[in-house]
Amino acid sequence: MKKYLLPAIKLTLLSIILLSGIYTLISLGIAQAMPDNGKGQKITQNNKIYYANIGQSFTNDQYFWSRPSAVAYNAAGSSGSNKGPTNPEYLQTVQARIDTFLVHNPGIEKSQIPVDLVTASGSGLDPDISIEAATVQIKRISKIRNIPEKEIKQLIDRNIEKPLLGLFGPDKINVLKLNLALDILDQSL
């Protein structure tokens, strides 16, 4: 028994040191090298502080809508819904999102709705939407804010974030940054 117990204890102690100590210190060191020391990307506008790297709920018709969240945008509990594409409850939820979007965006057909506007991300905290998801909302926002569609399209184009090193991931738009820029555009007109 001693033959097996001593190596198991040594392996456990080594794992604790490596995974709880050294790995944590390496992660902390990398975070300290990042902007804002890894505490998140903060944006201050009108004396309010926003975190741009955490998804937030935007469902007001005068704003670009954000991607749905399975955790109600609660950063303390990041997760997806874990319901598969054949789960009846999941299908009802997606259909309800589609129906809501169509009611608020007359003239848009179901086939024009990008998937990221009706499905939650894996983390439930995705702060970004696709270019298509922003573009499909232009008519609604233009009508409500009385801003020409062309100017809103230019605003979208200015807020496109390219993939990391031009390789990793698709073009995307941070919804918070876009909506804050939309408020500034609306105030300047």
UniProtKB/TrEMBL annotation:
Q: Is Transport one of the keywords?
A: yes
Topology relative to the lipid bilayer, per the entry, is: Single-pass membrane protein
Main location, first listed in the record:
membrane
- One Gene Ontology cellular component annotation held by this UniProt entry: plasma membrane
Entry annotated with the keyword Transmembrane helix = yes
| Sorted UniProt keywords | ATP-binding, Cell membrane, Ion transport, Membrane, Nucleotide-binding, Potassium, Potassium transport, Transmembrane, Transmembrane helix, Transport
Give compartment(s): Cell membrane
MF terms in GO: ATP binding; P-type potassium transmembrane transporter activity
Q: Which InterPro entries match?
A: KdpC
Which PANTHER family does the UniProt entry name for this protein? POTASSIUM-TRANSPORTING ATPASE C CHAIN, POTASSIUM-TRANSPORTING ATPASE KDPC SUBUNIT
- What function does this protein fulfil? Part of the high-affinity ATP-driven potassium transport (or Kdp) system, which catalyzes the hydrolysis of ATP coupled with the electrogenic transport of potassium into the cytoplasm. This subunit acts as a catalytic chaperone that increases the ATP-binding affinity of the ATP-hydrolyzing subunit KdpB by the formation of a transient KdpB/KdpC/ATP ternary complex.
Oligomer and partners: The system is composed of three essential subunits: KdpA, KdpB and KdpC.
**What family is it from?**
Belongs to the KdpC family.
- The name this protein carries in UniProt is Potassium-transporting ATPase KdpC subunit
**Originating organism:** Albibacterium bauzanense
Whichever gene encodes this chain, its name is kdpC
